[in-house]
From TrEMBL, chains A, B:
PANTHER family named in the record: NAD(P)H NITROREDUCTASE YDGI-RELATED, NADH DEHYDROGENASE_NAD(P)H NITROREDUCTASE XCC3605-RELATED
Entry protein name: Putative NAD(P)H nitroreductase
Gene Ontology terms, MF aspect: oxidoreductase activity
Top-level enzyme category: oxidoreductase
Pfam families in the record: Nitroreductase
Family, per entry: Belongs to the nitroreductase family.
Taxonomic source organism: Enhygromyxa salina
EC number(s) recorded for this UniProt protein: 1.-.-.-
Alphabetical keyword list: Oxidoreductase
SUPFAM superfamilies tied to this protein: FMN-dependent nitroreductase-like (SSF55469)
Superkingdom of origin organism: Bacteria
Length: 206, 206
C-alpha cells in the first residue's frame, strides 16, 4: 500500500458527532503551506477527482486554470488576482488555481442554474483527493473575478468561481503572526439539528 | 475493519486516466435502488459528511430536508416535488432529500455568491460518505422548486437546489425498461485537456 494514503491522525481532524470516512474527517483548509512541490502525477490525480464529479445532464461545467510556483511569472500573475489579505499566505503555496463555471448548457445555451453548484461538487472531490495524498486545499472567495477574466481571457459565458491554493500543509510559525491563530483555530460547525429538517422548515429530523 | 468500508470493484467504477482514491472511483449515480432501508446511523453519517464541508466564511449555507420511505405520507409528499420522469425511478429509493441554499450571509444579509457552490461542496462530501457505506446518491435537477418551497414553507431567503435519492444500488431489471440502459450506460467525462488550462483560456496545462 502506498504510504501516502495512510491515515495520519491530526489535531486538525474534524470532531464529528457521527462516524465519517477518514478522508472526510481529515480534510481541512490550511493557511500555512510547506515549500515542498506537488508532483505532476499528484496534481493530475487531484484534477482527475474533479473530472469524475457528477453534474446536471453530465454537463461538467467546471474549468480549472492552474499556476505552478516553478513558473514564476505565471504564478505571480495568478497571485495578483487574490485580495492582498489572501496573497499574504497563498504566496507560499506551490500551486494556485482558479475554478470557473460555464453558465449555460453547451447543448442549447440555456442557463444552467446548477453551474456553480456542480463546480462545487467537482472541487469537493478535488479537495478530498488532495487529502488522500496528504495535500491541503484552501479555497478563497477573496479574489478579483474581473481581473481573472481579463488576465486569462475568460469568455463572458463563464464565471470565475473560486481561487484555490494547493500544497502540503506547513508549519504555522512561517505565517505572519496575525494569521497563525486562524490556521490552528478550533474547527466548528452547526449541529445537524440546525440544518437537517423533516416535515417542514426548521423542524429537525428526529 | 468494518467490512462495509472494503472496496468492492464494480463495473460502475470510473475509468480514470490518473489514479484517484477508491472512494472517488466508486462513486456513481444509480437509477435502480434496492428496497433495503438505510440505517439511522448511516443516514446520520452521510449528513455528517455534508456538515464538515468547507464554505465561504464558514457560512455553511446548506440545509437538507429528509423524507424516509417508512413515513409513507412524508415520502409521497417529497416524491410529488419531482418531475414525473424522476418519480418513476426515485420512488424506489428508501430516502429522498432536498438540498437548499441560504442565499445571503447570516451575519450581514449580503448576497452570498457562493451559496449554491458551497451546497455542492457539502453534497459531494455527502455522496462520497454514501459511497463509503456502499450506498448510492443520485441528484436531480428535475423537481419543482416552487412546489418544494410551498410544501416545506421554505423562506424566500433560501433556494431549493437539488432533489437527492439515497439508498443501496439495486438491480437494473427492476427499472422500467427504457431506464435500464441509462442505469448501466458507459460513464463518460471530458479529458483533462478540455477543462484544465494554464497561461490562458483553452490552453491545456502541459
Amino acid at each position: 500500500m502506498d504510504d501516502r494514503h495512510e491515515p495520519q491522525p491530526s489535531s486538525r481532524d474534524a470532531s464529528t458527532d457521527h462516524d465519517v470516512h477518514e478522508l472526510i474527517r481529515r480534510r481541512w483548509s490550511p493557511l500555512a503551506f510547506s515549500s515542498q512541490p506537488v508532483a505532476d502525477r499528484d496534481l493530475r490525480s487531484v484534477l482527475e477527482a474533479a473530472r469524475w464529479g457528477p453534474s446536471c445532464f453530465n454537463e461538467q461545467p467546471w474549468r480549472y486554470i492552474v499556476a505552478r510556483r516553478e513558473q514564476e511569472a505565471e504564478f505571480a500573475r495568478m497571485l495578483s488576482c487574490l485580495v492582498e489579505k489572501n496573497q499574504r499566505w497563498a504566496q507560499a503555496a506551490p500551486v494556485l488555481m482558479l475554478s470557473v463555471a460555464r453558465l449555460a448548457f453547451a447543448a442549447n445555451d440555456r442557463p444552467n442554474r446548477h453551474a456553480l453548484h456542480d463546480v462545487g461538487l467537482a472541487t469537493a472531490q478535488l479537495s478530498l483527493q488532495a487529502a488522500a495524498l496528504g495535500l491541503g486545499v484552501h479555497q478563497m472567495a477573496g479574489f478579483s473575478p474581473d481581473r481573472a477574466r481579463e488576465l486569462y481571457a475568460i469568455p463572458d459565458s463563464f464565471e470565475p468561481v473560486a481561487a484555490i491554493a494547493l500544497g502540503y500543509p506547513g508549519a504555522p510559525d512561517q505565517l505572519p503572526e496575525d494569521l497563525r491563530a486562524r490556521d490552528r483555530g478550533a474547527r466548528i460547525r452547526h449541529p445537524q439539528a440546525e440544518f437537517v429538517f423533516a416535515g417542514t422548515w426548521d423542524t429537525p429530523l428526529s
